[in-house]
Structure formats: structure tokens, C-alpha cells
Amino acid sequence: xxxxxxxxxxxxxxxxxxxxxxxxxxxxxxxxxxxxxxxxxxxxxxxxxxxxxxxxxxxxxxxxxxxxxxxxxxxxxxxxxxxxxxxxxxxxxxxxxxxxxxxxxxxxxxxxxxxxxxxxxxxxxxxxxxxxxxxxxxxxxxxxxxxxxxxxxxxxxxxxxxxxxxxxxxxxxxxxxxxxxxxxxxxxxxxxxxxxxxxxxxxxxxxxxxxxxxxxxxxxxxxxxxxxxxxxxxxxxxxxxxxxxxxxxxxxxxxxxxxxxxxxx
Length: 265
Ligand SMILES: [Fe+2]
Prior knowledge:
With 265 residues, the protein is an alpha/beta fold. Helix content is 46%, strand content 10%. The chain is built from 12 helices and 6 strands.
């Protein structure tokens, strides 16, 4: 979603919308899914597990987008949209505002199997699409897209933090214990364990104003996670005056980062 150059290029679908994945790409998908399915029971939230069941993704090959679309259409009316590896913010928000979730159609190489900063098809489909079958998550993401599309570049930087601490790195504090709903965590085996089991990160109840004011880095395990009690809390957040909170966050300024500066020796 940034404009930095990518070494990856999205694969183009043919005239029937089908992408010809290679055996090696399908094998990488298989290995990523198999590893993550072993880890997530008892860690991913119930809504995510239900979404996985509904999507019923193939394990041995990368799903075609129409297979995902059939389920999203029937549950929340969302779709996935095929995009280049990196797209401008304008396009990102425009798609979300139209209930289209951007999916770059490339998959990481073996060399970057464990860690990849760019969102590949495994992150987008395995990480995010299960929750897109959930009405609260779908509604929040739609509202976010509409607000972001209308926002100024400076406001978008604030909005991006709310997205980061919910859609990407959100946790739930349920009666059964901590659970994950953020797709950035659920597509990373290392962070799936760290986010729930490590005593290093802080975990605080989410207030949107705090999230808007919290700096983050995309290249480290998160030092702080924000928790909701229920995925349905996203309905209430979506209906808040988020842009008024953005203005308030701008006036109050950012919190002190809980991580070292990126270029510290
Ligand atoms: Fe993502």
C-alpha cells in the first residue's frame, strides 16, 4: 500500500479471471497455510475460525479470487479486487469504500517465507478474508474506506493508525482469554505466538483516540496491542465521529513511541 518499489509483480488473470500459479507458488501457499492452521486454534477469535470454515479455502493451491468472492458476496456483500503489488492510497481507500478488498496477486518467495513487509496474497486472503465474512468487521472496514477516501493526506496518516491497531493487529479480550482478529498477526506464525503469549508487549483496551495517536513500525513485533471485548464493538466504533477524533488526535499529538528509532545503531 505504500509507494515504495516492490520486487514483486502481481500475476495477471486470463480472460476468465483465472491466474495460472506455478507448482512452486501453490506449494508455498500449502506450506504457509499448513503451518498457520496448526498454530491458530485457541488463538484466533471464533469469528475468524467461522470465516475460515465458510471460505473453505483449498490447502494445496492458491485459491482463485472468484472462489473467495462467492462466499464474501453471500455473507457481507464484499469482494476481493485484483491489484498490482503496490497501489496508491487513493486507490486503496476507493476500493474499500466500494466494499472491495485489494489483493495483490503474488506470493512471497521461500527466502521470505517467515517475514514479509509487503502484503502478499497469503496475508490478504488467509489473514483478512475470514473476518470479511463478519458483519461488524465488514461494516467497520467499509466505513473506514469511505472516511479515508474523503480525507486529506495528513488525516489519512492518522486513520492508518486506527486501521493498524484493529484490522491488522487487533486482539480481543474474551471470557476465554486473549484472541486474535488482526490479519497482520494471523498471517504471521511468529507474531501469532508473540501477540498472545509473550509478556513483552503491552495490551490495552482500545479507545479510537489512543489508537490514532500511537506510532507504529511495520518491521518489528508490535510493542503494544489494543484489545476489544467483542468483534461487534467494531460496529460502535464505525458509527463514532472518527474524523472529529482525528482532529482531536492532531491537536493532542502522538504518544511517545514504545520502540527505538528505526535507524538507531
Ligand atoms: Fe493487511
